[in-house]
Amino acid sequence: MTHETPLILPSLLAADWSKVAAEVNRAEEAGVQWLHLDVMDGAFVDNISFGPQMVQTVRKCTGMYLDVHLMIHRPDHYLERFLHAGADNITIHVEARYDTSVLETLRRIRAAGKHAGIALHPDTPFEAALPYVNDIDLLLVMTVVPGFGGQPFMEKETMPKLAAARDYRDAHGLKYHLEVDGGIYPTTAPIAKANGANLFVCGTSFFGPANTHEAMAGLMTSIG
Description:
- This protein is α/β, with parallel strands linked by helices.
- It contains eight helices and eight strands, in the order βαβαβαβαββαβαβαα.
- An eight-stranded parallel beta sheet has the order 1-8-7-6-5-4-3-2.
- The protein is globular.
- It starts with 6 loop residues before the first strand and ends with a helix.
């Protein structure tokens, strides 16, 4: 797939963790190709979710592409554990603390044969990603404050940044995907698409409804 291919990425954060395998299967049966896994450490963000063992558990359940978003400090320290757990893409935050550096961590991910992404907090300008754009496959613009699901879409604060990332990519012949995460529903996904997004992380809007086939169809129609 290319950076022009639109995809819906359900976030496991919004699934029922008492039946993870069934929830992963429910997503797969609805036609999902990429599954998003939000890793939170309680320090970089004010919430704790799960770690590499959950990624490994999900990998055992599916062959879907696993898009792992590390909302943690020292992602370079923990990196090998997520690589071995079965992540296909690992996205790290430019704002996190590192034992080494953002750039070295991105290059280690790619050297392991995986895809690498950089994520930006709503308050972080696109310019913070510029040193890394040649070393990423994906740029994630957070459209809510990272840490919790169910927040409203921050259009005014984040869409100009998303458009800037798209314009820079296109002007320089780059190919990174543009992903949005937070408050993505059929009403907001088209706004993000108009500003350059092709990957749409959906939590409550996908796993919330009882019928995920209908949820997926509605979300896909909104970005079609």
